[in-house]
Amino acid sequence: MLIKPIILRNFIPVLDVLSSIIREKKCKLRNYFLKFRKNFLLNTNKMDYKLRILNLKCYLPDESDGDEIYLKSNGNKIWPTDAKYVHIEGENTPVKVEFTIQKGDSMLIELWDYDLLSANDHLGDLTIQADAHGSYAIEFTKKGKDQSKYALEWEIG
Ligand SMILES: [Ca+2]
Ligand SMILES: [Ca+2]
Fold first, then answer.
1. Closest CA to 124 of 70, 84, 77
2. Which candidate, 128, 125, 124, places its Cα nearest to that of 153?
3. Were 153 and a residue from 6, 34, 46, 137 both cysteine, which residue would form a disulfide, CB within 3.0 to 4.6 Å?
């Protein structure tokens, strides 16, 4: 009859170790769950928007015989896609480029004039802010002392 308590007593440290392992695993599981929940919430708050750049409006070109215009974003040329530039003299020019943009994100658009004999002119910048669906038009903020006046029209859907 004495054997039983002795065996049981020897088991106690084993049980302690087991219970601490279980506690630790539970903690890891809980952390994993919390991390998953956080990522899930982050992902559901993100939303893809479709950005369509519609038109480039020129009210006044920089050069008297018109500008050789192209658009850049993040260091890359985004328009025109099939030529070096588009010759613009003061008109409404369809741009028709599309991007996927996430809600809340912004995109800086640079307006450039190509020059054959000198460095290209950075005519202006504007920021597209993807906050809500709708149609927008903003004038480029000028970078230099040129006389140009351009605006961009886009749509977020
Ligand atoms: Ca120029
Ligand atoms: Ca030029």
1. 70
2. 128
3. 137
